[in-house]
Every structure is written in structure tokens, then in C-alpha cells.
Amino acid sequence: CIKANAKSCGECIQAGPNCGWCKKTDFLQEGEPTSARCDDLAALKSKGCPMEDIENPRGSKQVLEDREVTNRKIGTAEKLKPEAITQIQPQKLVLKLRVGEPQTFSLKFKRAEDYPIDLYYLMDLSYSMKDDLENVKSLGTALMVEMGKITSDFRIGFGSFVEKTVMPYISTTPAKLRNPCTGDQNCTSPFSYKNVLSLTSEGNKFNELVGKQHISGNLDSPEGGFDAIMQVAVCGEQIGWRNVTRLLVFSTDAGFHFAGDGKLGGIVLPNDGKCHLENNMYTMSHYYDYPSIAHLVQKLSENNIQTIFAVTEEFQAVYKELKNLIPKSAVGTLSSNSSNVIQLIVDAYNSLSSEVILENSKLPKGVTISYKSFCKNGVNDTQEDGRKCSNISIGDEVKFEINVTANECPKKGRNETIKIKPLGFTEEVEINLQFICECQCQSEGEPNSPACHEGNGTFECGACRCNEGRIGRLCECSTDEVNSEDMDAYCRRENSTEICSNNGECICGQCVCKKRENTNEVYSGKYCECDNFNCDRSNGLICGGNGICKCRVCECFPNFTGSACDCSLDTLPCMASNGQICNGRGTCECGTCNCTDPKFQGPTCEMCQTCLGVCAEHKDCVQCRAFDKGEKKETCSQECMHFNMTRVESRDKLPQPGQPDPLSHCKEKDVDDCWFYFTYSVNSNGEANVHVVETPECPSGPDIIPIVAGVVAGIVLIGLALLLIWKLLMIIHDRREFAKFEKEKMNAKWDTVS
């Protein structure tokens, strides 16, 4: 916004959708240019501009005509005129556009059942189509029957074409002009295009008039079909087109001439795209060249005509390429004698009507449009594919989301109108574009205001818009005075040779400060001697991020001080767990504890390596007051009355963690080797509170009888075990000795006396 260098509110709001203009009269600081009134909204508010003084007009949309789409079924609905059927919604709206701010609206399309159809059959009557003509002669009634299954309101017409009536496309000898065919063939004189039958609902009349047609002939293979298509498209009154579905069936077995080919016959004037039918004959084929493909696309689109190319197999490739250039067109393969033309038309119609493609009229300069489609079965698309939906059946409803954006204001801010319509349909959405190029406060401006140096400008939106030839914040100078030496003297500080401190330029005797690349950095002051980016820094931030830099001095936010606003006055970081600042053993300076007691350390002066803990410190006093024993029993009333004591029945009744006051749970031994439990806490008033379990847990004495019985039993068991072991060893020894004796006895030799 600042880079736009806007001199007025109108220029400011055109710089971008987030730019606002402060119209507060005394908003600017000394040295700031008028363009400093233009900035993004957050910056203006931070600089002290109230919301009610910020001009920030927004775009809007207003729907003027919003008829619901028509719901009707063939055969059951009342007969409606084509203009009473609605397939697109809304029909008319107004968009107020601000530069850079898109306006979005939804468009609904629904294919109406039993929608009227006008079909014009345009046929090549060159000699090669002789057998096809015979089949087409009965086309009227047969096609009426078939199309009656789709719509109850169907009309059909017929036209024919051959070629331009000049050399070298036809032979211009008198005989060939009367009968261009050879041999005994009776052919009609060559012609460019003839409207044989305007659109009618009488199928018999179609058969009758087409039955009277005769084949003609020409010299070259490509035909003059483009001339005929152009006349069918632009001669709406003669053809009888209604504002309904318009189908043009183009039937041929040859290629086509296009723009430039007319030079062969000496025709150089481009086709003018106008109707030249006299007595249903095209009379200017010898005067105007063939139309170009782009010209045909334009006219077919303008007149909502959908084209069906019914061509033979030989030319399928050519006409498929042509189809890709003509929106809402189809190609069908025509049998050699056109016997399948009815089915071809029905298939092509179903194909064309199953797709909706949105197109818009020419956009004003600087306006862009984008589409997003919401089609059947959850298919969504954007960009070019966002313009269309396919596979739409009768009764299906699809939606489009359309964004319109103005990237610049038109000259004089005049309104524009654009139209959006589905290709091949006559219905359209009319959009009136109104551009927001000026602020509301500009209409309230005071021309030749005394506030602008004796009426040299218009005072509007809190600033002067100078008349031509005048400059300065208050239009106080003429352009001839800008660079005079006398003016420069007013832009120097006392005892200084620098003009505007080298941070600005002297205009009209006043310093207008430079702008920096970073739009958040600003020079200010009468001599541009101040800025908001050269203050002391902390942690890499100007004023530590805790203040505002004004004229190179930090103005700190509440609870901060220091040259870089890096000293916090908040004592919360110094609060110890007992609720005291720095544990009562230090001072809080810039949010950090400075411990005055050398024994204590840490961020809150609570760490003491040589000190007893809270529990050990208060153990003796709790013991003497709760149980009347311990080392301080005699001096309890003098040394241990600094806390409030409450007895509880069990440990479960002691205060638990989670209460607001810092709490310590303690377990200590008394003089009798019993455990006693207590809690110690200090409330916000500095009062100490002790809760103690009234009954200590003392260890019980040993039970003598079980011990003695156990010892005796152990001795007896050990004795028995020893006896058993001794007995076992003796048995083993005796058995070994007996075995030895038996062995020696067996080995003894006895002498016998005879």
C-alpha cells in the first residue's frame, strides 16, 4: 500500500484490496508525506487511526432477477412458450468491484424436459450427393416422429448449397450454367446457397419441397458450405429461428473452402458476416470471400446454433478437426446414401445436449473471470474445465461458482455489462459491473478549500488534493518554486548543512521524508531526523520486541523498562515455591532474582547446598508441639510457635498436592524411633501451616516364644539329621567289612589229616 505512493483516497483503494486511507486530519507526523495515509488496516490502527476514520470500501453483489429453473415433463406439463422456460439461474445481478477483491456468485443450470427444438437441414446438392437426395426427400415426417420422442415442439427447415458461381469453381459457359452435369443428367443451374424451406412444424411440407429439388454440379471437390453456414447463422428472420435449441445439420461428402480461397476467383473482400438473402438466394457469393473458421465460430456462438456435421467416412478426419475448433458441435458418419441420417441426428443431439459449456462476452479491460464447476457424481473442475459439465441428462441440475475480479479501474470509472450463457442456449446471465474507484469521503470534498493554502486545492478525506500546478501537503507552493535556494534553507537543522538530514527531499520548504524498501521502517520529524528502526536492540529485536521505537528512543510497554525495553518489571518469574519473591532471600531485578543471602542460589534463591530441608528444619518443633517430646521439648513455647498446627487422624487426611499454597510432605523419626508424618505450607499471607498425623507409627517389639521355639526346633532337627547321617555311614562301613570277611573266608586253604 505504501509503495503505491497514493496521493488520494481513490488511488489508495485501487492499490490493493487490503489498503485503507486514514482521513483523520491530524494523523500524519511531521515530515510524513500525504501518501503515508495509505496503508494496510492493521498498520493504520497501530499508528493511531480510529476505525471510523479509515476509508475501506468493500465490494458486494446484488441479485436483481432470480427466477427458479423450470420443472416440467413431456406430455404432462402445460404448454409453455419458449421464453417462459427457465434453465439458468440467476438471470440478472449487479457486482460492485474493488480492485483486487474478487466477487463470487453461484450459477445454476438445469436441462428442461420437453424443450423446443428448431432443426435446419443444410445439404450439399453437388452431383456426388444424388443418391443422398432421394433419401432426404422423406426425411421430414420420419424425423418429426423420431424427434417427437424428445420434444413436443419441433420445427424443421431445409437449405442447399453448391459453390460460388464464378470460375474456377464452376464452368461459366452458357450451356454448363444451364445444366452443369454431363451426359443425359438433368441438373439445375449452380448456385451458392438457397433457403428452400424456412423452419416449420409441417413435416409433409418438408417432404413436398425437398422432393422438388434437383442435383447441381461444380468443377472442384471442396464445396462452398461455409458461405451457406454463415447465411443460415445470420439470417435469423428468413430462416425463422426461435429462442430455443437451434440445431444446424450440415450434410456433405466433400471438403470445404475457407477464407483466402476466394482469391482463385478474383474475390478479395473478406466476408462481412451479414445477411444477403434475396428471394431466399445468397446474392453476394461473387463479391465476398468465404468466411474464416474463427468468423464462423463467432457467428454460430452469437446466434446460439449447435452444428452437426453429417459427413461420409472419407472426410471424418477433416471434420473432426473442424469440430475441435467449433464449440458445441458434433460429427457423425453419414452412410453413402444418407439412409442413417435420422439416427445420426438423434445421437448427435443427445451428445450435444448432454454437455453444458459456459462462455462469457468480451470482458472490459482489467477484468478477469474464473469458473469452478460442480457436476454430477461429485466431479469438480477449475480453470478451463471449470466452464463445463458433461453427461448431463434431462432434469439434471449442475452448479458453477464464478469469480469476477477487477485488476484496475476503467477510465472515468464507468459501469460495464458482461453476459454469461451456456453455449447453444439463448438464455443468459446479465451482470452489471460497477467499479469502486473513489472513496465515499471524496464526494464530501470541499473544492478550493481555505484549508488548502488559500483555496489551491480540494480538501477531501483529511488531505488536500492540489489543483494543477500546485504542490505541497497544503498546496502551498507552485511547481516553479520547488527547487529554489531559499526553500532549501527551511529544510536544514540548526548548525547543519544536510538537507532533511539526508533522509528526505525539500519540497516547498518542507521536508518530505524518504520511503524505505521495508514499508514498516519510517523516517519522520520536521527534518526527517527521526526514524523507528535505529533504537537499541535486544535478542535481535528493536526495543526487544517490548516497546515502540520513536525518534530513535524506545518507548516501552507497561512492565518493561531499559534502553532496549529488555528489563521486565514482572515479578512472576522471581516467585519461589513458597509464594515469596526470591524466597525472601534476594531482590527481583528485570525478572531475575539477585540472591542477597550467599548460602542461597538458583532462579528463585531456593537452592541451598548447606541448608537443612523443610522437613528436617521443622522436625523438632513439630515433634515437641504434637507429641511433647524431642530435643526442643523444654524450649518449645519459645522457639516453635511460628506456625499453625492442625492434627489429623490419618495420612489420608493430610492436605494433598494441587492446592494453591506451596506444600511439603514430610516423614521423620522421633526420639523413640517412631515415624511421624506432617505437611508444611505457607499461604499467600506468609502464614505457615502444619498438619500432623496425631498417632506416630512405632515398630512393635519381638515375639520371644516363637523365636525360642524356632531355635529349639532347629537344634533338634539338626541333631536328628546328624544322627541319621552317622547311622547311614556306619551301616555302609559294616557292610564293606562283612563283604571283605566273606571274601577272605572263601580264599582260605585248609589242610586235611587222613
Automatic annotation (TrEMBL):
Cell location: Cell membrane; Cell projection, Invadopodium membrane; Cell projection, Lamellipodium; Cell projection, Ruffle membrane
Disulphide bond pairs: 9-19, 12-49, 22-38, 181-187, 235-275, 409-666, 437-441, 452-464, 461-500, 466-475, 477-491, 506-511, 508-543, 513-528, 530-535, 549-554, 551-582, 556-565, 567-574, 588-593, 590-636, 595-605, 608-611, 615-624, 621-698, 640-674
Transmembrane segments: 704-726
All residue ranges annotated as the Integrin beta subunit VWA domain in the record: 8-439
Cited InterPro entries: EGF_extracell, EGF_integrin_1, EGF_integrin_2, Integrin_beta_N, Integrin_bsu, Integrin_bsu_cyt_dom, Integrin_bsu_tail, Integrin_bsu_tail_dom_sf
Major localisation: membrane
Molecular function terms, GO-annotated: C-X3-C chemokine binding; collagen binding involved in cell-matrix adhesion; fibronectin binding; integrin binding; laminin binding; metal ion binding; protein kinase binding
PROSITE patterns: I_EGF_1 (PS00243), I_EGF_2 (PS52047)
Membrane topology classification: Single-pass type I membrane protein
Domain PSI intervals: 1-50
GO CC annotations on file: cell surface; focal adhesion; integrin complex; lamellipodium; melanosome; ruffle membrane; synapse
Sequence similarity: Belongs to the integrin beta chain family.
UniProt-recorded name of the protein: Integrin beta
Organism field: Opisthocomus hoazin (Hoatzin)
